[in-house]
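Structure in, sequence out. Go:
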């Protein structure tokens, strides 16, 4: 595990209907993050468009693009110019009729260092992702960069401790979660605070259980019609290897978080809280079963 400190940047922004407008905004925010010292910059889930999965509409497949494609070419050139790593969540068209929710990792040389295809695909009111996305088939991979070894997961993946554990066991220094999550207008008053707290808590628990940094980057803004849209609640944050929140954005403003991460903090935490040492790997076979009851 590298011992050098590194700096990450999280870009929390709102999205317009025009994908090119969102790409231009992302560029300038990446530039700002790099100017503030960020070496790894992570964009939110599906940053090039509004969150189109609020409805099932075949016309919206036109938003998808191939990887490599125009977005990775543009961001790769930017990564090379700035000498940073960029994590970009994209709507991937893999083949005719085959689409993924994919994070591309662009290295400091501008090349694609790897892809992560979202493994867990939700299907809930206003989150109709199963209509659009095939579950990922690349597994839970890590990616080596000049600044550290990254684990990249996407949104709904953040609720699954198995995904975080596998990434951590692969030697990741930090887990990134590009995200698009918000409140249903009718539920916000009654459940909104608890939903946000649950979202933050589950990811902090991954940091604690695995002794690594966790960075979650969400979008902000209201998208959709007044009664059938989503209010994305931002709150992008970074938790240290003991789950302490070291930086957090607001629920309603565009922000850039730049945070220093020290791999030695993982070493310190793991020495004092040796969860990896005490794992009973001989007893965990049942975890691969769907259910253990009748």
């Amino acid at each position: 595990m590298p011992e050098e400190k590194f700096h990450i940047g999280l870009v929390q922004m709102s999205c317009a209907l025009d994908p090119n407008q969102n790409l231009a905004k992302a560029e300038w925010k990446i530039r700002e993050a790099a100017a503030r010292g960020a070496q790894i910059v992570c964009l939110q889930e599906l940053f090039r468009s509004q969150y189109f999965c609020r409805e099932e509409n075949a016309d919206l497949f036109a938003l998808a693009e191939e990887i490599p494609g125009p977005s990775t070419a543009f961001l790769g050139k930017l990564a090379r110019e700035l000498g940073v790593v960029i994590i970009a969540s994209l709507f991937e068209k893999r083949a005719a009729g085959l689409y993924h929710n994919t994070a591309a990792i662009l290295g400091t040389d501008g090349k694609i260092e790897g892809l992560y295809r979202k493994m867990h695909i939700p299907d809930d009111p206003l989150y109709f992702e199963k209509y659009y996305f095939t579950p990922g088939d690349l597994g839970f991979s890590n990616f080596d960069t000049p600044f550290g070894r990254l684990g990249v997961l996407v949104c709904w993946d953040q609720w699954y401790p198995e995904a975080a554990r596998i990434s951590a066991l692969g030697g990741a220094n930090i887990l990134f979660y590009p995200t698009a999550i918000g409140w249903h207008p009718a539920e916000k008053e009654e459940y909104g605070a608890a939903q946000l707290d649950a979202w933050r808590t589950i990811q902090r628990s991954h940091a604690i259980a695995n002794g690594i940094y966790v960075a979650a980057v969400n979008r902000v803004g209201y998208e959709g019609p007044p009664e059938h849209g989503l209010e994305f609640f931002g709150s992008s944050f970074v938790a240290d290897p003991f789950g302490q929140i070291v930086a957090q954005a607001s629920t309603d403003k565009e922000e850039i978080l730049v945070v220093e991460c020290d791999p030695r903090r993982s070493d310190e935490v793991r020495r004092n809280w040796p969860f990896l040492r005490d794992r009973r790997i001989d007893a965990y076979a049942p975890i691969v079963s769907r259910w253990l009851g009748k």
